[in-house]
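User: Predict the complex.
Assistant: Input components as received:
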Amino acid sequence: MSLALVGDLSLALLILGLAVWTIGARGAYGAVVGFVAYGLLVALVWVRLAAVDVALTEAALGSGLMGLLLLRAAARLPHDPAPPAAGRAGRLALRVLVGLACAALAAGLAAVVLLLPEPAPSLAAAAGAALPATGLGNPVAGVLLAYRAIDTLLEAVVLVLALIGLWSLAADDAWGGRPGALRIGQPGPALVLLAQLLPPLGILVGIHLAWTGANHPGGAFQGAAVLAAMWAIVMVAGLSPPPRVDRRAVRLVLVVGAALFFAIGIGGVWWADAFLAYPADWAKPLILAIEAALTLSLAAALGLLLAGPPAVDPDPVAAGRAGVRS
Amino acid sequence: MSVTTVFGVCAAALVGLGLYGLICHAGVLRKILAFNVMGSGVFLLFGVVARRGGAVVAGGGVASDPVPQAIVITGLVVAFAATVLAVALLLRLAEATGRTTLDADAPSTAESDR
């Protein structure tokens, strides 16, 4: 047994252990903490599977931003009620039955994995062969922004739709106000210092990830997730409140990525004979323009998704000022 | 046994575990967590397929098929957006009714206060 295999096996066992903890922990808070650690280890698995682009996304989004969201939710929610004593035996029997069914499903999937066809079907060669035409060096960026650009376009739209759904959960009297999910009473001095020191570096890292994504692992999503995380730290520390959701500038930033992507895609109908196709000489600059606008929009959308629906401002001074103004 | 076998079986187990938690937990936050575990299991299965496809092309070297990778990245972002929406719905439900489960008959903390 090679050393790498021992490492993979321990990583897999550790992940399974954390997943069992996440599902089986008594309190919701403990389960969320387990889930954040789980997400970081899953990012390591992606590195082992030679998918560094996915590993970056998983670490930033699946573990980092998701962790912040879930920890805030676990802290705000009341405890789940204890199940009633009656019908205990019936519930246990049901659990065993569900457990057996899920184990059968897992066994079936494992069998599929073990019996996958040899040689494996692959689009890697085709993706690599057409890459020079796009001017990109990273085949994943090529798939995201050229071959399967429609997926990326629709995804940018999905984020805006999710944000509309989130905002529409606001109470009537809070509509149009500032998002309130990241508001904490009195941020500690350590958090404030962190929120002052980290963002300058983090913003550089985010922009670098977005820029370098054309040729190396990284890209608009990874960069935007890091930028959104930096914005979230600033909002949690109370250094800068989230913007009012009825501001026109906010909404413009949110849609500029998808709008530019769509406009260039429509332009492709005339200049390159297909929707979302790029004219040969202009592929690289157009892709870079789309990536820049997408990074901005995605970072704003992710940050505002974390900030939650608009809430009534509890700050009496700010509320008083608003009252005087109106 | 290879890296794809180890993590493929691990991913299959994660899907089963996540589905179990999704069905058996009453609390909605726990259901959301379990759903994400299940989702990451599905993504990892896709990643294993991508790794196998990449290995064929690279002649056994370290590479991964970029097409599934790009689709998983899209999937991760959409899963995040869906989780945000689910958590927001849950917080609103707790705010409006005091319940954190989907069981309409369950005793709620708000009712005991009233």
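Chain A has two domains: 1-76, 135-317.
Let me know if you want any component modeled separately.
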